[in-house]
Each structure stands twice: as structure tokens, then as C-alpha cells.
Amino acid sequence: MRRQKLIILSGSPCVGKSTAGDILFRSYENSAYLDGDWCWCVNPFDLDDPRLREGDRAMSAVLSNYLRLDFEYVVFCSVVAMYEKIREGILEDITEEDYQVIGFTLTCSEETLRERHRKRGDKNECSMEWLRLPHYPGDHVIYTDGKTPGQVAQEMKEIIDGYGN
Predict the structure, then answer these.
(1) Angle between helices 17-27 and 149-161 (to 10 degrees)
(2) pLDDT tens for each residue of 70-117
């Protein structure tokens, strides 16, 4: 039996995580997808709000279920997975064992981020804060400038397929 793969995509809003993650998920049979934004959709949003830890636990529960149900590939996109403490907490609360974590940090130039933010029609200010965070240790870093989401997904797929079981 092949070892399950938990594929984590992190990076700034508008860098292309959700779109490339959805393409990546669809490229694999026997796969599942979770966009962590679904678990953190609160108003007002404040990263320091202790109630968001419940969103982290919800992510862990969904990921645990997907792994328990024997999906071979579980694709998980989350801005907050950039933070070591938050990612580690999510991973620690996963109840399943014997799966492989493959992490990606997607990034781009500030100019590209501003353009994507504008095209998305987001009325909030385009923040560079997330873009300037250090990459999660051990993640594969993929620069998305000048690439389509399909090209980014293909680049990730080549790396994932290169991992042993």
C-alpha cells in the first residue's frame, strides 16, 4: 500500500494557493481537498483571537477524517500554515499516523501580488505582511510570477511524484 501524502500549501493571500491547490487535487485520483480559510471564516478576523484555535482544531479534524478514509492524497491550503506554531499545532492534533507531509510555500513579487489582488476585486488593502514572512522550514518554495495556476500545480505534482513511498 502506498503511503498517504498530506500536501500543505501556504503563502500570502492572492499568491495562488487555492486555485493551484484545486488543480493539484483534481490531478490525483483518490484525493481530498481542504481550504483552511473555510475553518477560519470569522468576522472580525484577528490572528491573535484565541477563538481561532478552534478553527485550527477543525482543520485537524477534517484532515484526520480524510486520512482515516484512506485518501491517498490530501491537499490542504492555508495562509496560516506559514506560521510554525500554528502549522505544528494543526499537525499535532491529527489523529491518524503513518502519512507523509509535503509542504509548499507559494510566493511572488509584490507587484504580482498587487495585480492579483486588484484582479480579484478585493476591497481590502493589499498587505505585503504575509509575503514577507519567512518560508516554513523544509517547504518547497515555488515562485508563481509569470506562471499559470496549472503550471504551478504541475510543478508541485512533479515534486510530489518524486517522493518515495
Answers:
(1) 50
(2) 999 999 999 889 999 999 999 999 999 999 999 999 999 999 988 888
Rounded CA-CA distance 155/120 in Å is 24
In angstroms, the CA 127 to CA 153 distance is: 24
Q: What is the CATH number of domain 4-161?
A: 3.40.50.300
Residues ≥6 apart with Cβ < 8 Å to 153: 20, 21, 23, 24, 27
**Contacts of 21 by beta carbon, 8 Å cutoff, 6+ apart:** 9, 33, 35, 75, 76, 77, 153
With beta carbons less than 8 A apart as the criterion, state whether 139 and 43 touch: no
Q: Report the C-alpha gap between 12 and 79 in whole angstroms.
A: 6
Q: What is the pTM of this model?
A: 0.91
Strands (E), 36-157: 73-77, 99-107, 140-143
Residues in the chain, total: 165
Instruction: Give the three-class secondary structure for 106.
Output: strand
Place of cell 518524486: 162
